Amino acid sequence: DTTLYVVLDEAGDTDFRPFLTVVQINGLMTALREVCPNIELILSGTQLEVPTSRIDSQTEALKFRMLPWTYEVNFNALVAANNLSAVARTFLAENKFLHQLATNARCAYFLLDEVKRLSVYYKLASPTYIINAVAERYKRTNRLNNLNRPQVQSLVKGLMVELENDIKTDEWVFPDFQDYQTASLVDIHVEIRDNVVCALPDHEFPFSFSVSPAITAVLAVLMGDKESIGWDWSRFETLVALGEMFHAIKNAPRPPVDLPVSQLFGMVSCTEKFPGGPVGEVRMPVTNCKTIMVNGPASPYADIIVPYRLVQTKFSVGEGATLNLLEELDKMGLTGNEKFWKQQVMTAHFCEAWSEEPMDNVLVRLQEAVPRGRPNMHRQVHYPAPELLVAPEVTVDTTQVEKEESNAVLMLPDGVSLKAVFVTNADYFTIPAVVPNTNANVDTIIAAAKRFRPDWTKKIWEDICKEHVVTDNMTDEEKRNVLVSRKMALREDMFQHIGEDAGNSRTIRKEDVDFDGELLPDTVDLQLWQDRVKAGVEFRFVFF
Q1: For strand 393-397 and strand 428-431, is the pairing parallel, antiparallel, or unpaired?
Q2: Cβ burial, residue 375 (10 Å; 0-12/13-18/19+)
Q3: 71, 47, 61: which is closest to 7 by C-alpha?
Q4: pLDDT at residue 231, rounded to an integer
Q5: Longest Cα pair distance anywhere in the chain, in angstroms?
Q6: Cβ distance 387 to 267 under 8 Å?
Q7: What is the pLDDT of residue 381?
Q8: What is the distance between the terminal CA atoms of the chain, rounded to a whole angstrom?
Q9: CA–CA gap between residue 414 and residue 35 (Å, rounded)
Q10: pTM of the entire structure?
Q11: Under a CB-based contact definition with an 8 Å cutoff, are residues 451 and 340 in contact?
C-alpha cells in the first residue's frame, strides 16, 4: 500500500525540456512501476507551464506550480522572518502601492531587500526609486538583461498580440510565445490534453493566461522610449493603458482608502460607446477608486478612465499631433458646454464613485451577473492585468444630478484635482489658435467667438454685417471681399476682447513638461483654455 512520490524539481528549466514529452514521462513511469506499483509523479518549479503543456495534470503528473503571491500572506511572512526594522515597516505602511510588487515572488524578495536598506532617513527615499530598482533587478535575473528598450517593447507587443488572440474565440487558447522571456512573464492557466486546450484544475479566471500587477509594473518601467513601436492607434491605446496601470500602482488612489491589497487594481473594458442612453438618462460603466477602464472604440469621451485622470490618446504617424484642446475638454465633460451634458453627468458621477470606498471590486460585481467560465466571456478586451473584464453598466437619472447654472457640479475631495491627460507618441502637440484664420468659414469663426468671448451676443455679428453690406449690384469678386472683411472684423473684435495672442497656435514639446506631464513655468500659456474648464481641473501632456 506504499505510495512512492517522485519529484522533478525545476522541471521548467531548459535542461529538463528534452525529457518532458508524454512518451518520455510514460516510459519513466512504466519503469518505476516495476519497483513500486503505486507511484505518483510531481513536476515542480517556475516557468513550468510551457515545457509541460502536453502532460495531463489529472492523469499523468501533478504539477506543483508557483501561484501568485499576496502581500497579506506571503510578504508578511517574509517580513516576520527577516525581522524588519521599524523604519522599514513604517515605510511600507506609508507607501501601500508598493504592496503590488509582492504579487510576484521574485519581485517580493527584491522589494524586501530594497526596503531593508532604508535608514532612519527613510522619508528621503523615493518609492519610485524602489519600483525602478525592483524592475531592474528582475530584468537582470529573468534573462531580460540582454534586451534593449526597443526589444522590450517588441516583447510587450508580442504579449499584447497573444492576449488579444485569447479573446477572439470561446475556446481556451494556449499562448504561442516565440521566446522564453515572454513565457516567463505570464501565469498560464491552461494545458493540452489529447490535443485539446483545457483549463488547469485550479483555474478560476475566465481567460487563458494573465500577468500579475508586479510584472505589469516591471514592464511599464522597462518600456522606455517610443522608438521602433510602429503600432496602430488601438495598440498605442493598449500601451497607454499599461502605463496608466503603472501610474495607479505608483500613486495610491486619492483620497487614500484602506483596502486589502488582495483587491488589486482592476482593469475593465467597455465594448459599448459611453456615455449613452435616452433623453433624461445617462448610460455609463460602473467604476470605483480601484479600477482602470478602457472606453469603447470611438466613444465621445475619454479613451482611458482612471481615478481622477481622464486620458485621451493621440496617435500620430508624423512628427506632431494636432490637439483641439477645447473640443477634447468638452468630450471629457470638463467644460460648461451644454451640448456635452451627458459627458458632464458621467464625469460628475465618476468623481463621486472615486471618492467612496468600494464595498467590493468591479470583478466581484461582474461575477454575480455572469457565470464563471469561458462561455460568453470572449467580449472582454484583454490587457496584462489579472482582472480585465467587460465593465458592468449603470443608468443615471439626470434629474438627480446636482447642477449649478445648468452645469453638472464636480464634487472633488479637498486637495484633489481632476487631471485631463493627453498622451501622444509624437514629438510635440500642436494646439490650433483660438481665433481661426480668414480661410475658415464664418460659422467656424462665430463658434470660436461664442466659446472664448464671454460677452458674445448675436447682435455683435449683426452689427458687423450692417457695417460690411453685400448689395445686389456688386460683382462676385466684390461680394467675396465683403465677406472676407466681415470675417476680418469679427477676428479683430475677438482680438480686442481676448488678446492678440489668441491668434497664435501653441506647440508643446517634451522639454516643456515635467515627469508627470505638467507644464513647466514660463513655457506655454494655456490660460485661455484653463479659464473655460471647471474648478479643480488640471492639464497634463505626456509623451510616450
Answers
A1: unpaired
A2: exposed
A3: 61
A4: 47
A5: 114
A6: yes
A7: 32
A8: 63
A9: 73
A10: 0.60
A11: no
Mean pLDDT by 10 residues, the chain (544 residues): 82 69 79 84 77 77 76 79 79 76 87 77 62 84 75 74 67 75 79 84 70 77 49 64 65 40 54 80 79 80 91 88 94 90 90 69 41 38 37 70 78 91 92 90 89 84 92 91 92 88 91 90 92 93 86
**Cell numbers representing residue 493 in the block:** 473684435
The secondary structure element, H or E, covering residue 541 is strand 537-543
Task: At 411, list the grid cell.
Answer: 464634487
- Decide: 236 and 165 in contact? Cβ < 8 Å: no
Q: What is the pLDDT of residue 419?
A: 95
Q: What are the φ and ψ backbone dihedral angles of 452, each rounded to 5 degrees?
A: -110, -15
Please report, for residues 127, 342, 474, 478, 489, the alpha-carbon distance to residue 483 in angstroms, rounded to integers and kept in the order given.
61, 37, 12, 9, 10
Q: What is the pLDDT of residue 422?
A: 96
Which residue is listed with cell 447654472? Answer: 405
pLDDT at 178: 64
| Secondary structure of residue 243 in the 3-state scheme | helix
CA angle centred on 333, ends 358 and 347, rounded to 5°: 5
Helix, strand, coil percentages, rounded to 5, for the chain: 40, 15, 45
Residue 541 pairs in a beta bridge with 422
Inter-residue contact 269 to 380 (CB < 8 Å): yes
Going by C-alpha positions, the residue among 223, 170, 224 that lies closest to residue 199 is: 170
- The radius of gyration of the chain from alpha carbons, rounded to an integer in Å, stands at 29
For residue 196, the cross-strand partners are 193
